[in-house]
Amino acid sequence: MSSCEAEIVRVMAEADLLFTPDEVTEALERMGAAITARLATATPLVLCVMHGGLITAGRLLPLLPFPLESGYLHATRYGHETCGGHLDWKVRPTEKLAGRTVLLVDDILDEGRTLAAIIDYCNGEGAKEVLTAVLVDKRHERKAHPGMEADFVGLVSPDRFLFGCGMDYKGYWRNTAGIYAVKGL
């Protein structure tokens, strides 16, 4: 086993479980109900923010029993790093945004710089309104804009380095059913 692989295995073995798989499922069900109450007649465009939003979107979309169009975008500040850099657009939405209600689905609202840039992009493309849904809102005072909040939030976490349910540690562990925090971070 390489030293990188050993680190990845060690991080999981030592991690603190913050939210169980059942708690994640309950949070997604609450989000689905809230989104349905707000958007059932809007015929929204739901955009998954890759890669982190993949699991959240995949589990959330079947809970939305109304007509919607889905797509994705890929913008990142992290790559496989643990701290963010400049915004790198990998894939912009291919759907027309003008006049549409857009729901952005992501894994976490941390500082929110990537999400804020995506919101600005959607507004610049003429979206009627842009709403956000995140599985986890990490509470701290470093948000991109003071008081920044997502429109739909599943869980609220302490200010720790999280992974699981779409969030990764150096590109790994997005696939866990629960949400973990790296020991000591």
Radius of gyration: 16 Å
The helix/strand class is: alpha/beta
The major pleated sheet works out as: 6 strands, mixed
Strand content: 25-35%
Q: How would the global form be characterised?
A: globular
What does this structure look like?
The structure is a single chain. By secondary structure, the protein is of the alpha/beta class. It has a single domain (3-175), classed as Rossmann fold (3-Layer(aba) Sandwich), CATH 3.40.50. The chain is built from 4 helices and 9 strands. It has a 6-stranded mixed beta sheet with strand order 4-3-2-5-6-7. It has a 3-stranded antiparallel beta sheet with strand order 1-9-8. The longest helix has 19 residues, at 21-39. It is globular. The two termini are 24 Å apart.
Q: How is this structure best summarized?
A:
With 185 residues, the chain is α/β, with parallel strands linked by helices. It has four helices and nine strands; from the N terminus they run αβαβαβββαββββ. The strands form two sheets. Strands 4-3-2-5-6-7 form a six-stranded mixed sheet. It has a three-stranded antiparallel sheet with strand order 1-9-8.
Index terms:
single chain; alpha/beta; 185 residues
Task: List the SSEs and their pairings.
Layout: H1 3-14, E1 16-19, H2 21-39, E2 45-50, H3 53-60, E3 69-76, E4 88-91, E5 101-109, H4 113-124, E6 129-138, E7 152-157, E8 162-163, E9 179-181
Parallel strand pairs: 2-3, 2-5, 5-6, 6-7
Antiparallel strand pairs: 1-9, 3-4, 8-9
